[in-house]
Amino acid sequence: MTVREILNEKGHEVVTLTPDVTVAEAVAVLAKHRIGAVVVTNGAGVIKGILSERDIVRRLAEDGAEFLKYKVSELMTANVKVCAENHSNNEVMEIMTNGRFRHLPVERDGKLIGVISIGDVVKRRIAEVQREAEEIRSYIATA
Ligand code: AMP
Predict the structure, then answer these.
(1) How would residue 136 be classed by pLDDT, with cut points 50, 70 and 90?
(2) pTM (2 d.p.)
(3) Are the C-beta atoms of residues 67 and 59 closer than 8 Å to each other?
(4) Of 1, 75, 98, 120, which one's alpha carbon is 20 to 30 angstroms from that of 83?
């Protein structure tokens, strides 16, 4: 299964913010949409960073609630790994496992067109494994 197929199933909608908004606003957006990370763009689809709940928890432990006034640009990871629509589900899983993160924005022609989460890839991998097992069982039964 490819990233293109996953996006066709789940949709292309991505919750984004610009780097100049406050961390307090970002926290409200994460809570409202019940998501674990928000992609930071320039407002015109160019990816500038990613801010995850992990970044927020880490900074909370270091600085206390003071950082809620900071701009998202001060907390986000600016060096974002992305994937393209022709990446496979397994390739995306490998990128996430190696990078130790759970979100991967999808880019086309330098613009954000979707996001894949670890939940998306694991769900489809489980379905694939179940299908394979079913095929093997029916092959054995008819052999
Ligand atoms: P996550 O597991 O996705 O919640 O994120 C864990 C850490 O990795 C946080 O510091 C994020 O800012 C960072 N991160 C998340 N996704 C990416 C990505 N696609 N590229 C680079 N860093 C990321």
Answers:
(1) very high
(2) 0.91
(3) yes
(4) 75
Q: How do residues 76-124 score in pLDDT, each as one tens digit? A: 999 999 999 999 999 999 999 999 999 999 999 999 999 999 999 999 9
Phi-psi region of 120 (alpha: psi -120 to 50; beta: other; left: phi over 0): alpha
CA distance 39 to 13: 11
* Nearest of 117, 105, 44 to residue 78 by alpha carbon: 105
- Ligand 1 near 125 CB (within 6 A): no
Dist CA 87 CA 73 (whole Å): 28
d(CA 74, CA 67): 9
105 CA: nearest ligand 1 atom: 19
| Atom 7 of ligand 1: nearest residue by CA position | 101
Centroid of chain to Cα 142: 42
